[in-house]
Amino acid sequence: MGRSMSDTYHFIPSCSPRAAIARMICILERSASGWLLPLGLIGILAASTESADAASGRPDAVTSVSLASRVIEQNSVGYSQAYPAGAPKTSSWCNGASKPENGEPPAEFTAVTGMASVFPKFGANTSNKDGKVLVANGKTYVRLRSTKEWILVQDQTENEIVGAHFDAMVPKSPAVQMKIEVQTNGGTLVDGPPPGRNDLMWLVRRGGFAAGAVDSVYVQIDMKTTDPEMRVVANVGADWWRSPDSPHSGANNRGAGNSNWVELSPDWSTLYFFSGSTAQFVADPPPPLAESPLPATAAGMQRTASGPSPCLRTLAPRSAP
Description:
8-stranded antiparallel sheet, single chain
């Protein structure tokens, strides 16, 4: 079984109040985790068109076959654009997409939270010292088991992003406070990851549901850098929780999984994660993707890493059988 980015407690120092935010909640969380899910990948051709929101500079909607293909590629083993520096080489998520075969929460669990992590890019020379990351449009949906209807349970416009800088290589290491600034347009600006640490952030108010009522989760977040010289990679994922307010412990939360690594730039990138199988997701896509035909397998359109992986197990896209 795979292990999470943070299978042990991290100790977050007390946080000072932030301007423009009424309160700051400091809680212990861990990042998305899971098991590697091999997928047979078939290359297909897809037409490329611009997002309907391209003129505004923000990818608020998926409106083309090419963008829909990215959803599948970001959740298919072997399609990371680059790799994280400072990640445990034996972790299931080091190479990218990682999730348990069963995307459901434990039967007694009643909450979920979407999350994102940003790491320095493996092999890059820049320190990212002055760069920041802008995070927007974070949303978490859960799918009802009985009706297959997707319900929005977390929305960044009505929720608060919190987080810290963690050292993923050192268990129980104290987290370093991460400066977080809420923007007037609803986005959130966070410091880039310092050397040897990451940015780990999450929507603080967990999304709730009835025990046994949910069988899958979908997370979508837009991200970009403020400095073209920054060299960072990011992924998104989710954690299941026993209740909306249960404390962090191995008994109270389970990783739903995480997506592949996407290399961020000053242009907006939309990061996607879904739990469970691709076939189930394509059959019942969530509202942001409902108008776009989703391919059943990865289309091979996303740029993949050109250099070697720092992880002990190197994964490459599989060819058609």
